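Q: Given only this backbone (518 positions), what sequence would you predict?
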């Protein structure tokens, strides 16, 4: 992962491949942001004028490169847009800093060192810039024969180095920070630990399904658990059969790669609260017998994004030493059509004892989650949050960058929404209308896995609620939109797996540890 260093050096004196400065949209043109004073001085106080001449406006995410003026140790100045300039006396908000730092880090791919001279007034600003830069520097290269070659190793690659796969920015030097200040050091350490786990989730999501199946996903969790002192339990197909996990087994029975249920747990000796996280882990979703149409299969390796987020969050809690118990449940299966696959009209006996008529085998995520939710409830956690790329209906409702939040507790739903907003993950609270419950009634089972088509994302939430024990606060994050970015990268968000919900879940764990959630 990209290295992060804190520096009190001047932007003019630090040696780097490029110095990054911020530029905002002012009422009369671009305005150079605080932090770039030394760079502006090297340009005779006319950096904003030069940038405007080059077409820069200060718009969010806009990147402008120009040769450095004499007096600067870095040969290149990279100006990145911060958006609208704040009112006098106000600073830039954290998300603007994250996105700008991320865009700059992406633009410096292949460089050894970038000196980031963005506005940093306090440790919170430093945390935002560090987080954004590290997130933006991400690159998935495990499937590319040249992608892992960087630095010295790149010289050994056959032919010219592929400029599109020349590795991420190697080092972020954060200027204006205070290396010896406890708050700044803590901010840097948290950003490094957090982004490493977001990137773990991204790597898992981007891994092809022929490489990552339920068994190998479970093995990755066991390996990480050993490294970070976590406890794991893996239920294979025999244990799932013995335990009566009909939902997970029903989804996975059409595949040659059998399903798994993984429990991965972090405990703190002084914890007063326990948080349970449940992740949908469909390592490939063909739709099963209810086969997806052409054009909808190519990105279905990402259908395990929820489980990746849960896995990463538990490891992050351990790295950060949070004073809370965090237990992750990874419901892993591959949904494939075959002679042994579950058929539309089949009835499954779930772990809870309830029966479910499967009307559509492509509504499989709720089936594996239902078993995992029931199992998680048996440990009586203080709260449960499930995370899933669950419904196309949520994408239709909220688009590709916003996830939906549902809950059996209005206060908990509000808290989740506020936390997501705080960390910069777009979300929206959604209802669970009582009138939609009737649509999942079945004449041959306790429930059907499908209901009304309109409001399908809400129907899925209502189905899951049936498997949550009364008295336990539960939240459901439908990340179907933002989990996988099929368009171009933006801000600190890469193309492909995004690691959606990890930052929200980690902040939830922190607030729970601090006693902020009651």
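A: Predicted residues:
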């Amino acid at each position: 992962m990209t290295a992060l260093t804190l520096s009190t050096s001047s932007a003019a004196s630090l040696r780097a491949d490029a110095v990054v400065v911020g530029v905002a949209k002012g009422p009369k043109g671009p305005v150079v942001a605080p932090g770039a004073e030394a760079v502006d001085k090297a340009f005779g106080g006319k950096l904003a004028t030069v940038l405007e001449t080059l077409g820069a406006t200060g718009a969010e995410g806009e990147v402008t490169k120009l040769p450095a003026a004499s007096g600067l140790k870095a040969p290149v100045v990279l100006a990145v847009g911060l958006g609208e300039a704040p009112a006098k006396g106000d600073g830039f908000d954290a998300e603007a800093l994250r996105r700008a730092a991320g865009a700059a880090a992406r633009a410096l791919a292949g460089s050894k060192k970038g000196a980031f001279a963005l506005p940093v007034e306090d440790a919170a600003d430093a945390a935002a810039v560090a987080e954004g830069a590290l997130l933006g520097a991400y690159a998935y290269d495990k499937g590319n024969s040249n992608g892992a070659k960087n630095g010295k190793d790149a010289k050994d690659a056959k032919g010219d180095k592929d400029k599109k796969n020349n590795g991420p920015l190697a080092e972020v030097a954060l200027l204006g920070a205070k290396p010896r200040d406890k708050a700044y050091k803590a901010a840097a350490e948290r950003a490094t630990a957090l982004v490493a786990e977001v990137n773990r989730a991204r790597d898992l999501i981007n891994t092809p399904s022929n490489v990552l199946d339920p068994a190998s996903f479970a093995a990755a969790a066991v390996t990480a658990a050993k490294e970070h002192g976590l406890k794991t339990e893996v239920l294979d197909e025999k244990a799932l059969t013995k335990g009566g996990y009909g939902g997970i087994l029903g989804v996975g029975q059409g595949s040659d790669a059998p399903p798994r249920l993984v429990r991965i747990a972090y405990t703190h000796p002084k914890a007063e609260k326990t948080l349970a996280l449940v992740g949908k882990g469909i390592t490939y979703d063909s739709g099963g017998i209810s086969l997806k149409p052409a054009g909808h299969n190519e990105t279905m390796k990402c259908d395990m994004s929820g489980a990746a987020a849960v896995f990463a969050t538990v490891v992050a809690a351990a790295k950060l030493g949070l004073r809370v118990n965090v237990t992750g449940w990874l419901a892993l299966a591959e949904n494939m059509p075959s002679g042994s696959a579950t058929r539309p009209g089949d009835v499954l006996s779930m772990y809870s004892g309830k029966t479910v008529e499967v009307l559509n085998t492509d509504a499989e995520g709720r089936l594996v989650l239902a078993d995992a939710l029931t199992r998680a409830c048996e440990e009586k956690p203080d709260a449960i949050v499930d995370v899933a790329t669950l419904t196309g209906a949520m994408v239709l409702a909220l688009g590709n960058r916003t996830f939906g939040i549902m809950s059996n507790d209005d206060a908990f739903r509000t808290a989740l929404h506020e936390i997501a907003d705080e960390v910069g993950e777009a979300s929206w609270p959604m209802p669970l209308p009582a009138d939609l419950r009737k649509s999942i009634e079945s004449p041959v089972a306790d429930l059907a896995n499908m209901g009304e088509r309109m409001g399908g994302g809400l129907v899925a939430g209502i189905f899951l609620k049936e498997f949550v024990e009364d008295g336990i606060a539960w939240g459901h994050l439908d990340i179907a939109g933002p989990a996988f970015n099929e368009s171009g990268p933006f801000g600190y968000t890469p193309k492909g797996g995004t690691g959606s919900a990890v930052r929200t879940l980690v902040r939830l764990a922190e607030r729970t540890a601090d006693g902020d959630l009651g």
